[in-house]
Prior knowledge:
Elements: H1 9-16, H2 26-29, H3 45-50, E1 54-61, E2 64-73, E3 79-86, E4 91-99, E5 102-106, H4 116-127, H5 138-157, H6 160-166, H7 172-180, E6 205-209, E7 214-219, H8 221-227, H9 236-243, E8 244-252, H10 257-260, E9 264-271, H11 274-288, E10 294-297, E11 310-314, E12 322-326, H12 334-345, H13 353-364
Parallel strand pairs: 9-10
Antiparallel strand pairs: 1-2, 2-3, 3-4, 4-5, 6-7, 7-8, 8-9, 10-12, 11-12
Amino acid sequence: MTNPAMMTFNEFMEHVNPSGKSHPDSAYNRWTVTDDDFYLNQWKMADLSKKGYKQIGAFTSRGHQFVIMTAKNEETFNQQDFKIYDVDEDRIVGSLQDEWGTVLIMVPHDYRDFGIGKQLSDLALKYHADKDSGGFTFAGYSSYKKAHARAVQEAIANGTYTSLVRDGKMTKERVIEIVSSVDKKSINKLKFDTSGNVTTDSKDWLLYHQDDAEFIIYDKRLIEHYKNGELNVTANDYWTEKFLIGVAYFQDMSSNSKSIGFNPARIFKLHGKDNIKKFLLECLHTQMRDDYDRLVFRPEEISVPESDAYTVEPVSSLKPFMSIKFKEQPSLDYRKLALAEAKYRKPLDKYGEFENTLREFADSID
């Protein structure tokens, strides 16, 4: 399948609209979610389930909760169709589907400012980049242009262009040509080094922690991508892999304290490289020690690295759990780090939407 990020914008337009067709916005602007003409307005979640649609993502916009559903359409040779469902209103408010061999994206007029077109356009580029668009309205053209720009920006961020140049599969001049067709300022973001990776300099890391048992270390540039509208649900794996450095949290197990002889806190998630895990274990231990005696974990679920700072031993009264005993109390003051993170994040995330997305990303990590 064609990767739009490997083309300039004009090349991409020629690829998806070879005939150069256009349509007046009036052809589609008449649709509202309550119009009988918007034929999806009667579809409910139950209808989607009956037709085999499965949820693949979710997002929040302007106080509404939306889920993204998909299914293969047997009538169009098993091509992928997508629907966006408004949970609060119990109705379909967006559709990406085949229309006589071309791409049809529908968003009712009264839902044009919810980011639904953005989500559907990104899906169109991912799953239907080789299909004729059938022509664009002005709004459709603008939406595709922004989606192509996001694909290019993602290729910059994840090191795709750097890797292609390093491996001799693309010239620097070609990369600059593609990027400048989207945004000449983005050329400054290109780094033609030998790593091909997003930098992992710890000065760019932040430690998220609230008044609970959750710790998240993330690259602060994730907020920039959020502000640019790039954190779409179709690329969660990319964002978690590149920008989530570590995740850890524990759960209460005090109900077992009488039977095992101490008050345990169970490590429910521990993610990151070994040095990150050791740091997060110190965070967990420092937070839990006022209310619990020891951290415990199941070795088939959690991988704990070896360290001179603590010992790991089985709990005979709570098999198959293992316990972690620190030899000395860690002197780590994670609260200062958490306050620094909040001070940096909150002015950029006044309504807490990035915070919710960050926690969703952390929860998605196995």
